[in-house]
Amino acid sequence: MIAPMDWTTIDACRTSTELPRPVEIRGWIRTRRDSKGGFSFLEVNDGTSLGNLQVVAPAELENYAEEIQKLTAGCSVVVKGELVESPAKGQATELHANSVRVIGWCDGETYPLQKKRHSFEKLREWSHLRARTNTLGAVMRVRNRISQSIHRFFDDEGFNYLHTPIITASDCEGAGEMFRVTTLNLEKLAGSNRPFDTKQDFFQKPTHLTVSGQLEAETYATALSRVYTFGPTFRAENSNTSRHLAEFWMVEPEAAFYDLHDNMQLAERFLKRVFSDCLSHCGEDMEFFNERIEKGKIDQLKSVIEKPFEHMTYTDAVERLLACDEKFEYPVEWGTDLQAEHERYLTSVVGGPVILTDYPSSIKPFYMRVSDDGKTVAAMDVLVPGVGEIIGGSQREERLDVLQRRMAEGGLDESEYWWYVDLRRYGTVPHAGFGLGLERAVQYVTGMANIRDVIPFPRTPGNAEF
Ligand code: 4AD
Ligand code: MG
């Protein structure tokens, strides 16, 4: 049910079959073209769909010469008139205006989004306006669809939506790539010889922006059985790549009594649901990506939805990489992390998503469950063509003694994670979960090459504008 409004969305106008009928629309001018026949064509968009609605404004309108003929890209308008079947090709309907009211003029001298095409890089300089372009508008609608789909999927699967803290004192991933949170006056401290005293700080201990809500989600999974957290995540990794952001959104389900196999099944059902929701709800936007951004995207997603995901152990993956003829920049060796180029190669030979499992324990965080071989952990990464790793997850170490040993080996202070360790003391259970990077999912679905173009306001090293 859509709440009744005083006006009609452009999306509804474009697909309406109830014609002719009076409507009012509200939106922004994309283009104006004056015809010799005594009227102007206005292309209006309100962000409810990729396509515009064509408004035909006749010269008889009282503000025709004064205002309508001065309309430029970016002006906001309210148009009332008769929605009719369009005789023109490429559009089902058009609006014959009885009145065009200008709400806000747009300075054509300085407005950056003129007809001319701009590179995505250039558009990032106008991140406050770029959603008014076809591509960014479509990306943001798909991003919204994926977010809604995430909530619906987990609700359907009986997962409780959990809010985990953004400020935390633990480093879940153990990579040390954290943003410090402090209220201490750093300029003043730097100028004095006094040592940095965290006891004086707001939380009286070192705190950071979270790199993952997993540890907190695990605690709730041992009470509510199935939970998921979905929120902003921060990593101070100084990597300027097309798949890394300093602030991104991650969805992390965590389920009690799940093992690695259950976890892989969940991830596969989840991704397939998200992809199929995008195809069924964002048809026009997906057609656009299919034609303009990555040819064949729709068929690719359809085939991913139909086929079971491939599974491969890390050890098998390394063997395949060593045996292939491809020249890699980074050498492959058992025990080292796979690089983006290796991941891309693996997805290309498989021709679709692949779930890599059983990574060496030495390259994975302390919380992953140690396998019987003693060398690997019950980890799983989902890799997709083009993007590479989209999901990282694992079965968790539920055995108290093994967890304590792993923490000691990793140099973690057990006393700082006492509450996490407690879960293994009080009714421990096998459990598992994963994290999906929302932006990487949007990148994969849309085919957008750079992660900076699938989040409204990207944060990357040296860039926190807007
Ligand atoms: O593999 P990661 O680091 O896993 C975790 O954080 C686990 N605690 C998740 C869990 O088991 N609950 O990150 C998960 C995903 C990656 O697969 C990737 O999609 C995304 O988060 N990601 C990033 N996305 C954008 N920019 C970055 N800097 C990212 N780092 C990770
Ligand atoms: Mg990972």
UniProtKB/TrEMBL annotation:
Main subcellular location of this protein, as a coarse class: cytoplasm
Enzyme class: ligase
Keyword Cytoplasm: yes
Listed GO CC annotations: cytoplasm
Localization per record: Cytoplasm
Enzyme Commission identifier(s): 6.1.1.22
SUPFAM superfamilies with a match to the protein in the record: Class II aaRS and biotin synthetases, Nucleic acid-binding proteins
Catalysis performed (reactions): tRNA(Asn) + L-asparagine + ATP = L-asparaginyl-tRNA(Asn) + AMP + diphosphate + H(+)
Entry's family note: Belongs to the class-II aminoacyl-tRNA synthetase family.
Protein's name according to its UniProt entry: Asparagine--tRNA ligase
